[in-house]
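Structural prep section.
Before we set up the soaks we want a predicted structure of the protein with 3-isopropylmalic acid in place, mainly to decide which crystallisation condition to try first. Input record follows.
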Amino acid sequence: MTSYNIMLLPGDGIGPEITAEVRRVMAWVEGAHGVTFNVSEGLIGGAAYDAEGVPLSDATLARAKEADAILLACVGGPKWDGKTEYNKRPEAGLLRLRKELDVFANLRPALCFDALADASSLKREFVAGLDILFVRELSGGVYFGEPRGIEALPEGGRVGINTQRYTDREIIRIARVAFEMARKRRGLVHSAEKANVMESGLLWREEVTKLHAAEYADVKLEHILADNCAMQLVKAPKQFDVILTDNLFGDILSDAAAMLTGSLGMLPSASLGDGGPGLYEPVHGSAPDIAGKGIANPLAAILSFAMALRYSLDMGDAADQVEAAVSKALNDVRTGDIWAEGFDRVGTTGMGDAVLKALAQS
Ligand code: IPM
Ligand code: MG
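Run finished without errors. Recording the tokens verbatim:
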């Protein structure tokens, strides 16, 4: 019997609640597909800081590196904001994990489920059928660039410093992922940067152009300034297929796109490197305001598991089933974030129940 090692990192806030629903879906896949998931749990973020004094311990990291796939929920919250050393804040654990695994390619599909087209802040006709794939560079750029820090100025006062930095190699490897993905989709890549104000953006544009001409001339490439991309996402989101962008712009643009799909509670992501385990996490945060209330939407976490099935475990059929079950569940029940007149309002477990019911019928 095939078995896979799965590392679960529930993290903070709503993380443990939504992870519990993912576990139920995992159990269904085990039964239906005759595989075994050897699950190991670990601490990350504020939970790790409280228990171990660091947001990601070396021991947890070592275990994560051994896994076939890592399912992370979310980190952070007011309990730690400004109350821990900056390099030990919950987010630092997540950034260390991404960096150490070198998962440079963050795939964020922004898909508008038909049932949710009315939950979007845009009119139905702008978002129905929306299917964008963000390819966000995840292990470089201003998130990691040196020098960084807060320093005292000789003349008095202080300066905060971060560095946006991209090598040609980093640009080429992420651009390659975007072009490959576009080939399997509608064959269009928008590459978003700020070549008009940043040298790193200019290099980005030059390297993407070169790679395109040399190897991917069959894919249509459009360069777009990141600010214009933000505007176009709200104006006419369906013009996009794949959006290739850097770490910071990708963070911002993917949140904007998430809202187009109805709720941030719906968006999964996969972070992949060259070999090594993939890291799967919902795009949303730890939602401390609703943590522990049993009302969080577990679908982004469940859809992230579906991405793990597809990209790390070679179980595309099971991934299709889970995605279809999510779509089906949305016809009956809704958590608060996507609730609309005429639907049963359920909590986290109720949504899990609906997905499992749909899976049982698949
Ligand atoms: C994301 C999050 C993270 C990021 C935070 C939690 C560090 O916003 O995955 O989009 O900025 O990358
Ligand atoms: Mg973000």
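Observations: The mean pLDDT is 96.
Flagged for discussion at group meeting.
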